[in-house]
Amino acid sequence: MGAGTEPAEPQCDSLEGRIYLDYNATTPLAPEVAQAVWDAMCQAWGNPSSSHPAGSKAKELIGSARQSLAKMLGGRPEDIIFTSGGTEANNMVIHTACRHFHNSRKTGDSRGIPHIVTSSVEHDSIRLPLEQLGKEGLAEATFVPVSPRSGQAEVDDVLAAIQPNTCLVSLMLANNETGVIMPVAELSQRVCALNRRRAAQGLPRILVHTDAAQMIGKGCVDVQELGVDYLTIVGHKFHGPRIGALYIRSPGTATPLHPMLFGGGQERSFRPGTENTPMIAGLGQAAELVNKNWEAYEAHMRDVRDYLEATLEASFGKQRIRFNSHFKGSKRLCNTCNFSILGPGLQGRRVLAHCKVLLASVGAACHSEKGDRPSPVLLSCGISPEVAQNALRLSVGRGTTRAEVDRAVQDLLQAVEQLEQDQAS
């Protein structure tokens, strides 16, 4: 950069006429967030642990971001720990629960290894650590199936899976594929009552965790109403950078928290390592946007999502569209539409491959390597393999318009027509 040259402002790449309907996978940085990241890179580059002004500026930005995240959740700034992302936060909760189980055991206690209850539709950052701990004989887990009637992990089923050595229940707040919102608040209340009885029996406390990655920015997320001990925050799901945070109700006092890393003492030694100030500043700005606008975001996305579903039915006919995210009596995310276009040879991946402008997915981005195999999430919801393999997940965003929906559906129509022509020839 030459002398006197001003740094360029942050720019976001365009999609060159493509229509992006994969907001559950990741979201672009909001312009305000990109600016906050850029400003922090240029103006708050000091080490937050340093006592001089350059470090103080970075520390101030981190503190401000912590306050914004706490406000977004209805919690306190001291209950927020910054992490590299949702995967680290989820692993940290599992690690903590197992450690707490062992630390709370008394001499002669024969309870065995820690037991964790979760659902069959959790993100891999919950499922895979539990499977690995099971392989190593360090913990055991029960994966409660969701109900085909509701698409939810029913509270009674979760409670029925609890054992004397259960130390953690983890249930996502909303599913990333179906959009179904889980009964986390009711579960927390029931576990709280159960813990009172367990304490009288000398049994370990059951901690409650929810991964709120999909819900933040699309609806109200209040830790007081949810009653959870831990809540996972993922920045790139609500137009923030690809980092995350973990909410812990009074970490280290009311709620246990054990570090997985050891180092310089940052984040009160719960998560050491020099803080990534620009990304944290961006996460704080993303939280501020949610604080100010979440109701408007939710209303807009619900309107566009409903228009999308009506347009799909009108274009393909009710007999050819099967909505995989409609469960009577269950609430779902305002932006998520999971559906199948019925017919042979119309697997979701093949349809998307023939689309010219639509950018979407067949399910969770982290399962993209599984080819045409039906989504385990949809199968667990009671959807037949023939329907599930044709599934598409379209998730709209804050700026998605009805005109874009029209173009996307027309693109799907031409893709299906092309596939059917190819089959007939």
TrEMBL record:
Domain Aminotransferase class V: 19-407
Keywords noted in UniProt: Cytoplasm, Lyase, Pyridoxal phosphate, Transferase
InterPro entries: Aminotrans_V_dom, Cysteine_dSase, PyrdxlP-dep_Trfase, PyrdxlP-dep_Trfase_major, PyrdxlP-dep_Trfase_small
Localization per Swiss-Prot or TrEMBL: Cytoplasm, Cytosol
Residues spanning the membrane: none
Pfam families the record matches: Aminotran_5
Names of required cofactors: pyridoxal 5'-phosphate
GO CC terms: cytosol; Golgi apparatus
EC class: lyase
SUPFAM superfamilies: PLP-dependent transferases
Entry EC number(s): 4.4.1.16
GO terms for MF: selenocysteine lyase activity; transferase activity
Main localisation: cytoplasm
Function per UniProt: Catalyzes the decomposition of L-selenocysteine to L-alanine and elemental selenium.
Family named by the database record: Belongs to the class-V pyridoxal-phosphate-dependent aminotransferase family.
PANTHER family, A to Z: CYSTEINE DESULFURYLASE FAMILY MEMBER, SELENOCYSTEINE LYASE
UniProt subunit comment: Homodimer.
The protein's name in its UniProt record: Selenocysteine lyase
Species for this entry: Serinus canaria (Island canary)
